[in-house]
UniProtKB/TrEMBL annotation, chain A:
InterPro entries: ABC_transp_permease, LivM-like. GO terms for cellular component: plasma membrane. Keywords: Cell membrane, Membrane, Transmembrane, Transmembrane helix. Coiled coil: none annotated. One of its GO terms (molecular function) is branched-chain amino acid transmembrane transporter activity. Its main location: membrane. The keyword Lipoprotein does not apply. The chain crosses the membrane at residues 25-46, 83-102, 109-129, 156-173, 210-232, 244-269, 276-299. This is Branched-chain amino acid ABC transporter permease.
Amino acid sequence: MKTYSALGAAIALAAVPFLVGLNEYYLFLVTLILLYTTIVVAWQLIGGYGGQLDLGAGAYHGLGAVVTGFLMVNYGVSGWVGLLVSGAAAAGVAFLIGYPSFRLGLKEVWYALSSLALVLILQKIFLLWTDVAGPLERYIPYAEFDPVFMRAGTKIFYYYITAALLASTFLIVSRIRRSKTGLYLISIRENEEAAEMLGVDVRRYKLQALMIYSFIAAVTGGIYASMVGFYHPTLFDSWISIQTATLAIVGGLGHLLGPPIVSIILLTVQEYLRITLGAVIIGLHQVIFGIILVVIIMFKPDGLGPLIDSLARRFPASVRR
Amino acid sequence: MVVAVVVIAAVVGISVFTRVLPLSQPTPQVSEIRVGLVEPLSGTYAVFGNEARMAAELVIEEINSKGGIASLGGAKLKLFVEDSKSTADGARLAAEKLVNVDKVHVIIGAFISSHTLTMLDVTEPKKVVVMADALVDYLTARGFKYIVRLPPKASVHGATAVDFAVGVFQQNGMKIQRPVIVHFDGLFGEVTADGVYTRLRDLGIRPVDRIKYPTDITDMAPIIERIRQANPDVVFVVPYYADSVLFAKAVASLGLKVPLIVGAGGTGLADPDSIKASGEAAEYMINTYSYDPFLPTNYNKQLVQAFQNRYGKLPTEAAGIVFYTLWTLKEALEVSGKNYPDDPLSGDNLMKALMSLDITSGPAAETYPSGHIKLAPNGDNLYAQAVALQVQGGKPVLVYPFDKAQAKPVFPRP
């Protein structure tokens, strides 16, 4: 049964580009939706299980874009290598930030604010660091189709890379959740002092969760830079941080299915609103999107995760997690 | 197995998405010409984008009400507006939509040069003509085939600012001794300031300082103090909008005394929005523009009046460029319809039509500062010209070129 589901999933993901008629614009949007959903899924590790309201997604995403882009533009290094390097760089930054934060017991709003500050700090650093980024956009050389360099004129290439990343992220996160690490993280979220008393190395597991999540967020940034063909410090975008945390919370903290499903649906709604209303009444689409979020949280304060789980429970046992 | 549910949700979401948004139909037989407009309608540069959009709506309405494109059987122009959100990737996304979904025949945009560059990645492979309203020189120097640009490029703006300043000094029996260049650190700021620098160098004048500040600057005081340190006789400044307001206010509030302050590049300082935002600090500010709202031709007067009646403000940089760009497009479409009736809207034919134009009369010429539009092989206007406006009594007036000026520039600044 499990293999059937996986096969079905693979076929469905593979079919999406054809459902949108191979239209480059829709493929671009669908890829963006999957990219942001990937961050939401990865965020579960630190936010959903670890219980830390991390708002650093924009920093790791931006770092991925800048590092991958920099290597492609300045050294002609393949984007694939760039993704790994940028992931490692982001995990390194996460370590540098996370180690003292967790050691000093930075939690709740203080952790949230310090992680959000990271986005703005990195943006400033790269605006001033003109050898790597600076205020001028850097353009990645155009290639009609160069899979080794990871650059293509068509979005379908990036779509499949992103789909694969989302699927692997989902598998990694669900595996960690079932592992001892996952249980430790959940125990930290439920009651950090109690977990520590029971001998859980709180700092270590929080740090692990943070580093895996930041690695994945950086990879999404690298794919993004390669797809749009340039990088610039504005890609350190605090909106991504807020969007990620919001979607994960609305999807249900710590739920496996809720966040990705909600994120795909709401991001689709958001894009649809942007396309139809974005240039009609400026900002209206954001207002409507905000209202949708408020309404969901008003009626379902725990997010849609429990609802989706209970719906999943009505399906045959095989669909359950 | 959970993956399956996720994926099903994705598929459902996406197919709903595409159903609600019908995929575009095949191109009909020239019943309409689809014109895309990518502008910063929200975000940092929204003040420019919204003015451009107003102008586009006004002119397209006029072209259509006067019978559309005669050589294409009266086909009408249809405008598709997209917001770049004042970001480079927003402009790119907008171009993707216009090219792949709305299937536009031509795109006007994206005001900010670096944003325009990201659009070209999308338009070039699909042979969609871009008529740029962005000024950085190398937009037309990178070998792109489907781009034209009518307004004077950034370096021309820089040179015009210098020529104006030199002229003002000469009229008063003086010579520029200690110029200072101040500019924001984006692409457009760099290139325009380079234009100022190059012209000064050609005239054998050495700037005493060149000061760069971040685009999102919030405190101009350190910049003003550094200018004061340099003790200049003229300051050339290249701002965008919000920073131009900060600059003007800081000059006034910190009491910086410089005989002449000249902006270059048509953004900020002396247009109605900047005057409104800067208040009295805007007085005597000067900037170069790609369009002269006071051009005394019949059509220009009429258009400026119509613009003011509808939107309650004087059209300057962003609107002006769209005025003559759209009228030039109209002329090109007439030619294309006549010369290439089989496929008048293809990128190649439209480019050929644009290149064959030599406009010296009609609405496009009557709204262009030099009154003459003919494109060089790289897509730039051979007769590009910029003008300078100065704020006098809270209103912009034309002070350069001197032979067309409405008033003498106020010099030195009181």
